[in-house]
Each structure stands twice: as structure tokens, then as C-alpha cells.
Specification:
This protein has about 220 residues and is α/β, with parallel strands linked by helices. The chain contains 8 helices and 5 strands. Helix 4 (about 95-120) packs parallel to helix 6 (about 155-185) and helix 5 packs across helix 6 (about 155-185). The longest helix has 29 residues, at about 155-185.
Length: about 220
């Protein structure tokens, strides 16, 4: 049974930048791109209305941070150009590597619960995980290789944005696979709670983003 996406979840945003271009991607929680904007930095700096339009595209979305996004720097410049208060986004960003770490932590919790039940004398089988995960993967390049994703084509900003989108889609799939164990094993459900739709940090950022309203 698939995990239900909460009604408050607008989706997430990926921002990347190269020497002369800002790329903004809107993505639904099931990984479907719902909007994309490729904007010359010259235009962004010269036209506050352009910056404000882009800010409106991300204000209610969790914003992905990674080693290729430079999200804080990009958002700071976007905010300055749009003449908004600095730092409005900080509660709604989440780290991509951290979201992957949440998956690893949840899997470890599942394994610990199974081991504890087994030690109590009950016969239970191990989880046959469909995908083995490498806990040392942290960068987008490492996560992309672990997920067996290719290198996206396009300008550096576009390629980086698409790489982050692909990795997050994969993390969401692996998280759902992990959470589905709770539907199949009642003792895991009892110990760890009901299935959750997103890794913890990602979910918290999405909850904060849902409350964000900018004076645009």
C-alpha cells in the first residue's frame, strides 16, 4: 500500500547557479517536475520583478541544499534582488545528504527492532531490502552513482539541478520502501510509529514552507 502524501505538501524546489545563470526547478513530492526557470544572473540583478517572481515560485516549498546547489548563496542574492528580508528561507531548507542519512537511520531502527524482537524469543525473518545502501555516500555525485543515475545534460546549472532532482526522487523511493516495512510488520509499526511520507528533515522543511508567506 503506497504511503499517502499529506495535503499540505506543495512539493520542493531545487536552485543551482553557474557563472551566469540561475536554474530553479519546482518538483512534486513524487518526483515530477512541475515548473522550471532558467534566468540570466544579469537579468535577475537588474530586474527586481524577475527576482520576486522566482521567489514566489519557491516560497511555500521545501528547498533542497546540496554540495552542488550553493542554495544559501543563491537564495541570499535572490532575496536581495527581490528586496525581501534576508533569511526567510532558512527554516524550509533541508540537506539532501541529511535526507539520505534519515533513510539510513530509519533502516537501522528497523534492524534494531527486529533484533530486539528476536532476542525476546520470537522467530522473525530479516528484511530483504531491495536496495543495499552505502552509508559513506554524501555528495550528489556519490548518491547519483549509488542510485545508478546518469549525468544529466545541459548547462552546468541545469545539469546540477537535474542531478539533485534525480537523487531526491531516488531517496523518496528508498524511504518509501523502508517505511513500507511498518505496514508489513506490526511490531515495527508499534516500535517506530506509522509510515511517514518523507525523511524527517525533508518533512520538517516542508511543514515550515507550508506556513511561509512573502510580501510579494
Amino acid at each position: 500500500m503506497p504511503i499517502e502524501v499529506p495535503t499540505w505538501a506543495t512539493g520542493y524546489a531545487v536552485l543551482t547557479v553557474d557563472s551566469d545563470t540561475l536554474a530553479v526547478w519546482q518538483v512534486s513530492l513524487d518526483g515530477r517536475p512541475t515548473g522550471a526557470w532558467i534566468t540570466p544572473l544579469e537579468e535577475l540583478r537588474a530586474e527586481p520583478d524577475t527576482a520576486r517572481r522566482l521567489a514566489s515560485c519557491i516560497e511555500r516549498r521545501a528547498i533542497a541544499r546540496s554540495d552542488v546547489s550553493g542554495a544559501d548563496m543563491v537564495l541570499s542574492e535572490l532575496t536581495t534582488c527581490a528586496k525581501l528580508d534576508d533569511g526567510w528561507w532558512r527554516g524550509q531548507t533541508f540537506d539532501v545528504a541529511g535526507a539520505f542519512g534519515d533513510v539510513l537511520e530509519r533502516r537501522a531502527g528497523v534492524e534494531h527492532t527486529i533484533a530486539a524482537v528476536r532476542e525476546s524469543g520470537r522467530k522473525v525473518t530479516d528484511v530483504d531490502w531491495r536496495r543495499e545502501l552505502d552509508g559513506s555516500a554524501g555528495s550528489i555525485a556519490e548518491l547519483r552513482r549509488l542510485a545508478r543515475l546518469g549525468v544529466p545534460s545541459g548547462s552546468p546549472a541545469v545539469s546540477d539541478a537535474l542531478a539533485v532532482v534525480g537523487v531526491l526522487r531516488w531517496i523518496a523511493e528508498v524511504w518509501e520502501e523502508t517505511e513500507q516495512v511498518k505496514n508489513r510488520r506490526s511490531y515495527v509499526h508499534t516500535a517506530l510509529g506509522p509510515p511517514e511520507p518523507l525523511p524527517t528533515r525533508w518533512r520538517d522543511a516542508a511543514l515550515t514552507a507550508d506556513r511561509t508567506r512573502l510580501p510579494l
